[in-house]
Amino acid sequence: MNNLQFEFTLDKLTKTVFVDREFNAELSLVWDAFTKQEILDQWWAPKPYESKTKVMDFKVGGRRFYAMVSPEGQEMWQLQQYTSITPKTNFKFLSVFADKDENPHLPGSNWDLNFSEENGITKISISIYNESLERMEKMIEMGFVEGFKMTIDTLEKLLTTLSEK
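Structure (tokenized):
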């Protein structure tokens, strides 16, 4: 039985989504899964969608421009602009929808990801602050909660596979 923490909380008053998740994997591997393109593209989309990164420059001021691609080939583009990075413990980015030419569709959401490890269990705490309640509600309406849970489950399976190598 999996006793690892997985909490998903919506707070409409602060327009913030909170996710706390534990993984049975070393911190450095979980960090790499969130910060390296070749690993991100293996899990950062709810199945059957796939993640396809066009550009990724993981540094403060850098960006990741990627699409979630449906089995029919429909592309939904997203732009993440990195605003803060503290290696192995925290990074932040602004996330906005975009068109295929990288033109952002504001408003976006500010992601704050915190990593910690204790006894071989890595915990990640994510706060997703939305600039407007309307954007948060639209995100939820589009299936963000179900999709993100599915995506995190895919990450857990991938981490198990990568830990065995």
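The beta strands are 6-11, 16-23, 50-56, 63-69, 75-86, 90-98, 104-118, 121-130. The mean pLDDT is 94.
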